[in-house]
Every structure is written in structure tokens, then in C-alpha cells.
Write a structure and sequence with these properties.
738 residues; seven-stranded mixed β-sheet; 24 helices; 33 strands; flat; binds adenosine-5'-diphosphate; binds magnesium ion
């Protein structure tokens, strides 16, 4: 359903609410939503439905939703699953249009649950109602004092500008990390209706929210592009952070049963996040740390870090972390160095990291530290400061007040690592100011600054590169209804990714996906399709016999390659069905006969009858790369680039991008793989024709974007030659849905 901002606002800030299925049990362990809502300070009009009670916690109970004296903005449903359809029908009949469905045990659980869900979703659909959940704690709004959670939630005041969209109540109900002082939160649960795109747009447009965190197991199939469009708009206003879980095959399986949403390949998610400027985080600490950095710290406008430390060793740890996370050690200006030199003993060379200890020996420690820190923080070459401190001995060296004062004086972020068991009260004291962020290690302090600079120096203000159709492409076919990119129905469940045979790029191939028709392999016409899009291919001819192969070889010019083609030949080399560098007709005929003989021996007469021969020009030299593409269930057409052979198959050194690609983006993908050094010309080798690869990748991306019926393809390999000499595909495997 389309985005409805008014409905979203009412989910978070309803004027009136009914809770259907309120328990008479209260107190610890009762998980009573009504009790929690009252304790949280909800001030709107509140009703309860429970046929067995007249009043609970001072709130009048009604036997049925139909009996309510007014139409509440929102119904929070917490009844056994069997009666959900009836209860929802009653509410709809009373005129209620917004539902938070708390129960689990629906489509994510078993067939009975799925049919109950279908039944109430039909009722919901008939009334144009909107749903958060099921399997959810619902929504939390600390600004206006509303929550629908069965876990008690502490309301911290004043609320911070953080919002979270999650698929577990954990993040709403715990009070650590990003939810410490949480502004707003939504547990989207099984996402039968309201999912990530709606929630992200709502938080994106909320002026009280300054950072949006997401805990995502998976998007719904088909909604990836919508989500990215929403994100691209929101990210110009505020940072978007995601901790994507269900990354492993095992995790994805649990996610499948946990909330009915299935994880797509993590690598595709990562590529998509990067494309939209969503910062992808490594773990839950990363999420906590980054949210805190964005809430508390000044923007970091570049990547240059100064490290001011009470110990040399701590400074080295922070410097290591800068390298690991891609931040630079700032080069201090001569003026700064001069000013520092005046504080330090003459035998001490000052620089970055700056170890304060030698300067403070025999002096009053704190004033010296402050002088050093201020001098460095003031340096125009410094974008952010990591302070390494300790809580020593009697704890007299307390930097917290000074660091807060420093953060107030200049708009530069300060991340403070304090080590030691006395650090907690100091951290609390410093963070109460909401101007300094404290971290439990140098790594985490630096990583948090990386997130800040990633957003302020790179993502925000990034101009979208529009991929414009290269000249000379065939006209785009009219998209078929329901093709790739169209939103799948609410609550759609799909088979897990990863089943079926695997192609060299690691993607599932050769599998007829249920409900999507059968998938077949294209023959040599794949080369025609490539050529039509201007993707260069080795000159070729398809023939039926060894003798015909020799004729075509004469026409193509020697040397040539002969290989098998046909629906039964997948890995040709393994069958001995690729013969390279054939010099004359005799060799061609002999090779052709041998190949057909092997196919017959391996697969029987039928296989041989279906098999033809492909004659190609033999392309000597160059490097082998893979260009691939597929239709991703979440994000639609995507392309892949990698070096051939072990680089791709063993090392998984590949880069993924959303199709169609802008040329600059295609170039970034190529440059991103670790093996790029080889293409650039390592160890005296000639540089490869990267421009030609960029062009081929762009054109391939248009092919797969134009043709959703091409579910997957591999050009393995494309041979790329020295700069100016181009590239050409010698093998193409296309899987096409018919
Ligand atoms: P398959 O991947 O099914 O084994 P390919 O057509 O990719 O078959 O051929 C296997 C290998 O043979 C390629 O990776 C490449 O190294 C080499 N090769 C194939 N065709 C040519 C050609 N036309 N010119 C030069 N080398 C080729
Ligand atoms: Mg191949």
C-alpha cells in the first residue's frame, strides 16, 4: 500500500487507543500492555476490551470492540491467534483502521498460522486498514508519551533524536546503546504491511529525529528499490545506519522462520546500502557507538584524526585503528608543532599521536594535558580528536570536565577512550553533557569517528549519478506487468536463497523457481544478445558437425577454439569439451569429433544429439575477468565484477552494483576488488584496458535491467587486453525464464 503519513503519525501518537485482550494480571512478569502504557505516561483516551472484566487498572473494559463509545485511532491486539480474524473484523466494523498486532505464531510459524494471517489480512484489505506487525512490540514515542510494548520500557527524559526500526523488541525494550534516550522506535515484526520503507520515510520526515538506526533481518521481496529511493532522500537530511543480521546461511534460515522475511545474499544488501548512502555496521556495538557519535558529537567534515594520549602505547592502538578503518592521521601544522615543542622537553620529537606524558613529567599533569589537547584540537588540519585516557590510582586525573568544555568551544568531534575500572562514572559524567562520547576501546572510538566522517565528509551532499542509457543500445522493451522490481504482495514468502546448483560467481543457478516459470539456458544466441548491447564478444559461429566447424574456422581465420554448446553442457572444460589454439582444418575436425564423442560418452545419445559445436577466434594473452548479473529477489537487476579463476571462486574477490550502472560507478566497482592491482599492471605488466571493461559492465547492466527474464548470467571469462586493445567475452551462460 502507498505511504500514508497521517496513519504513520497515528501509530506513534494516537489520540485514542483500544487494547484488545488486556489481561487482568498486573505487576512484574505480567507483561501487561495497558499497565506499561499507563506507566509510560500515555495521556490519550484509553479503552480496554476483555469480556471477563469490567475494569482493569482504572480503565473501563468492554466485552467487544463493537461496544466502544468512540472509534479509537489505534487498536493494539493481543489475543490468541485463533480469534484474531474475528477480533479484527469487529474492530473494522466499529470503524478502526489502524492495528498493531502483537501475537506471534502466524505465517512465520506454521500452515495454520499462515491461513489465520491470510484470513485477517483479507479483512484488513477490504477495509483499507493498516497494520504494524504481527509478532511485534509495536511503536514507541518518547516525545509524546506513547508505547504499545508488553515489555516495560523506561522513559528517559528528555528524549534524544534517535529512532530505530527493528525486527526484534530487544532494541525497544533495553535501555542501553542507541535506545538510551530513544526518541522513537518501531518493531516491524513480520512486516505484513508497514515495513522498512514506510518507517524510514516517516522517521526521515520527522524533524525531531536526527539519526535513524535500523536492525534488519531482511526486506520484503521486491521492495528493495523503493526502500533505497526513500533512503536516498532521507540521507540528505540525517544519517541512516543499518545493522543487517541473518548474514550467515544459518542466520538466514532462522530469520525465515522467525519473522517470515528472508535474508537475501548479504553482499547484495551491502552493495545496495552503499549505493544509497546507508552506513552498514559490523555488530551491535557498532550500532550503539555510531548512534551515540551522531547524537552527541559535532560533524566530522574530513578524515583527519589527531590522537592525544596519556600513554604512547594507547596512541599506537588508536593509530592502528585509524588505518584499519580508513581514517588518516592528521599532519599537524608547523605552528601547532612549534607551540607543542615549547611545552615539551627539547629531546622529545612531537607529532601525532601526541603522547602527553613526557611533557607533563614533573609538572602539574592536568594543565599540561589541557594545553596540549587544546593546541592540537585547534589545528585546522584536524577534523576530529581521539583522546586516550586512563583512570589511574586514586582517580585524581579526571579529564571529563575539560573534554566537555573543549567540545563546547569548537565544533570538532571528541571520542574518548578511557581504560580502567573507574572509567564508568567518568564516562557517565562526560556523556551527561551530550557533547563527548566515551568508548571502551581505541578501536571503537576510532570506528565511531569513521561513521561520522563517512556521513559528513562523503555521503551527505553526494550528488546522485544518474545512469544514462549509452548510445547504440536496443530500445528498452516494455516492462511486463509483475516483472522484476514490482512489489510483491504483503507477507509473500519465498524459497530460501542458495538452493540449486552454483555458478562460479557463487550464485544459485539452474533452478526453476516456483511460480516463476521454468528457467532454461540460452545457447549461442546469448552472444547475439550481448553484441546487440555492444558488449564485445569473440567472433564465433555455431555449427552442427566437425566438418562444418572446419569451414567456419577458415572464414574466421586461424588459430581458433572449438567447444561444445548445448543444454547438457555446463562446465565444458571439465568434460574436455574446449580445445584451444587449433591451427588448421585437420585439428579442428579432430577436436570436433573428440568433443562430440566425449559428450555422447558422458551423457548418452540424447545429450550428443542436442549438442553442437562453437567455433571461436582464439584470443591469446590478456587477463581473464568475470562479468555477471542476476535479478535479485529484493533489489532487482544487479551486476558483478571479479577477476577470473581462484580470485572469484576461492577468494570471493568480487564487487556488486545495482543495474543500470553509471560509468563512474562501474569504474569504482572495478577498482574496488583486491585484484585490481593486477589490472592496473602489477610488477611491470602492461596495464589492462579498464576503460573497455567499464563500458562492457555498463552495457551489461543495461541488458539485465532491460531484460528481467534473464534471471542470471555469467560471462566467464571476459578476456581483457592491454590499454587500448579492448576486451572480449569468450564464454556466456544465460539463464532465461520462459
Ligand atoms: P567452460 O567455462 O565451460 O569450461 P570456457 O568457454 O570458459 O568453458 O573455456 C574455458 C577456458 O578456455 C576459458 O576460461 C579460457 O581460459 C579459455 N578459452 C575459451 N575460449 C577461448 C578463446 N576463444 N580464446 C582464448 N581462450 C579461450
Ligand atoms: Mg567459462
Amino acid at each position: 500500500m502507498d505511504y500514508d503519513g497521517k496513519a504513520m503519525e497515528k501509530f506513534f501518537n494516537p489520540d485514542s487507543v483500544v487494547i484488545v485482550g488486556v489481561s487482568r494480571l498486573t505487576g512484574p512478569g505480567a507483561f501487561n500492555i495497558l499497565e506499561n502504557m499507563l506507566a509510560y505516561g500515555y495521556k490519550g483516551r484509553l479503552y480496554a476490551v476483555n469480556p471477563k472484566a469490567t475494569e482493569i487498572l482504572g480503565v473501563k473494559c468492554y466485552a467487544r470492540a463493537l461496544d466502544l463509545p468512540e472509534i479509537p485511532d489505534l487498536a493494539v491486539i493481543t489475543v490468541p491467534r485463533e480469534i484474531m480474524p474475528q477480533v479484527i473484523a469487529d474492530c473494522c466494523e466499529r470503524g478502526i483502521r489502524l492495528f498493531t498486532l502483537v501475537p506471534q505464531g502466524l505465517a512465520e510459524a506454521d500452515a495454520r498460522g499462515a491461513s489465520i494471517q491470510d484470513e485477517f489480512m483479507r479483512i484488513v484489505g477490504e477495509h483499507g486498514a493498516r497494520v504494524v506487525g504481527p509478532n511485534t512490540l509495536g511503536t514507541v514515542n518518547a516525545f509524546d508519551g506513547f508505547m504499545s510494548s508488553f515489555m516495560p520500557i523506561e522513559k528517559r527524559q528528555p528524549p534524544l533524536g534517535s529512532a530505530i526500526i527493528c525486527q526484534t523488541g530487544l532494541f525497544l525494550a533495553t535501555d542501553l546503546g542507541p535506545t538510551s534516550g530513544l526518541g522513537k522506535g518501531i518493531d516491524v515484526g513480520n512486516q505484513v504491511d508497514i515495513g522498512f520503507p514506510d518507517a524510514l520515510r516517516y522517521f526521515g520526515e520527522d524533524p525531531r529525529i536526527s539519526v535513524v538506526a535500523m536492525h534488519m533481518e531482511g526486506l520484503r521481496p521486491g521492495e528493495g528499490r523503493l526502500f533505497l529511493d526513500v533512503a536516498r532522500r532521507a540521507v540528505q537530511e540525517k544519517p541512516l545506519l543499518v545493522y543487517k543480521t541473518a548474514r550467515s546461511a544459518a542466520g538466514a534460515k532462522t530469520a525465515g522462520s522467525h519473522s517470515g522475511s528472508l535474508a537475501g545474499a548479504q553482499a547484495v544488501y551491502e552493495a545496495a546500502f552503499e549505493d544509497a548512502g546507508i552506513i552498514s555496521l559490523e555488530d551491535v556495538e557498532d550500532l550503539d557507538d555510531a548512534v551515540k557519535a551522531f547524537l552527541f558529537l559535532s560533524p566530522m567534515r574530513g578524515r583527519r584524526v589527531a590522537i592525544v594520549t596519556v600513554t604512547g602505547g594507547g596512541g599506537i592502538m588508536a593509530a592502528d585503528a585509524c588505518e584499519r578503518y580508513g581514517l588518516e592521521l592528521a599532519t599537524l601544522t608547523p605552528e601547532t608543532l612549534k607551540a607543542l615543542q615549547d611545552i615539551y622537553p627539547s629531546w622529545m620529537d612531537v607529532g601525532n599521536p601526541l603522547d602527553v606524558w613526557p611533557a607533563a613529567i614533573g609538572k602539574d599533569y592536568l594543565p599540561v594535558f589541557i594545553q596540549c589537547f587544546d593546541t592540537v584540537a585547534e589545528d585546522p588540519n584536524v577534523d576530529g580528536v581521539v583522546c586516550v585516557g586512563g583512570t589511574f590510582g586514586d582517580g585524581t586525573v579526571d579529564l571529563s570536565d575539560f573534554l566537555v568544555a573543549s567540545a563546547l568551544r569548537r565544533a570538532k568531534p571528541i571520542a574518548w577512550w578511557i581504560h580502567g575500572r573507574r572509567s564508568f562514572p567518568l564516562a557517565q559524567k562526560a556523556e551527561a553533557s551530550r557533547k563527548v562520547a566515551v568508548y571502551p576501546s581505541a578501536d571503537r572510538a576510532v570506528r565511531a569517528l569513521t561513521r561520522l566522517s563517512g556521513y559528513y565528509a562523503d555521503i551527505r551532499g553526494r550528488v546522485a549519478e544518474s545512469a544514462s542509457r549509452p548510445a547504440g543500445l536496443p530500445e528498452a522493451p516494455k516492462p511486463a506487468a509483475g516483472g522484476a522490481g514490482s512489489a510483491a504482495g504483503a507477507g509473500t514468502r519465498t524459497a530460501p536463497d542458495g538452493a540449486g546448483a552454483t555458478s562460479p560467481t557463487g550464485w544459485a543457478i539452474g533452478r526453476a523457481r516456483s511460480g516463476e516459470g521454468s528457467v532454461r539456458t540460452l545457447g549461442p544466441e546469448a552472444f547475439d544478445l550481448l553484441a546487440a548491447y555492444g558488449v564485445p564478444v569473440a567472433r564465433w559461429a555455431a555449427v552442427g558437425s566437425p566438418e562444418a566447424a572446419a569451414k567456419e574456422a577458415d572464414r574466421l581465420g586461424y588459430p581458433v577454439v572449438v567447444k561444445a554448446v548445448g543444454p547438457n553442457v555446463l562446465h565444458k572444460s571439465e568434460l574436455g569439451a574446449v580445445r584451444l589454439n587449433l591451427a588448421d582444418p585437420g585439428e579442428v575436425i579432430a577436436a570436433g569429433r573428440d568433443i562430440l564423442g566425449r559428450i555422447a560418452a558422458a551423457g548418452g545419445e540424447g545429450a550428443a544429439a542436442d549438442t553442437g559445436l562453437l567455433v571461436q577466434e582464439f584470443l591469446a594473452g590478456g587477463h581473464e575477468v568475470i562479468l555477471g548479473a542476476k535479478q535479485d529477489p529484493h533489489f532487482g537487476p544487479i551486476v558483478l565484477f571479479g577477476l577470473g579463476g581462484i580470485f572469484t571462486e576461492v577468494l570471493h574477490d568480487v564487487a556488486i552494483g545495482l543495474a543500470p550502472l553509471a560509468p563512474a560507478k562501474a569504474r569504482r566497482l572495478i577498482e574496488k576488488i583486491k585484484g585490481y592491482a593486477i589490472l592496473r599492471g602489477a610488477r611491470g605488466q602492461e596495464p589492462s584496458d579498464v576503460d573497455a571493461l567499464v563500458d562492457a559492465l555498463v552495457r551489461l547492466s543495461w541488458l539485465v535491467a532491460d531484460h528481467p527474464e534473464v534471471v542470471e548470467l555469467d560471462l566467464n571469462p571476459v578476456k581483457v587486453f592491454a590499454a587500448g586493445k579492448g576486451c572480449r567475452a569468450v564464454d556466456a551462460r544465460f539463464l532465461v525464464r520462459s
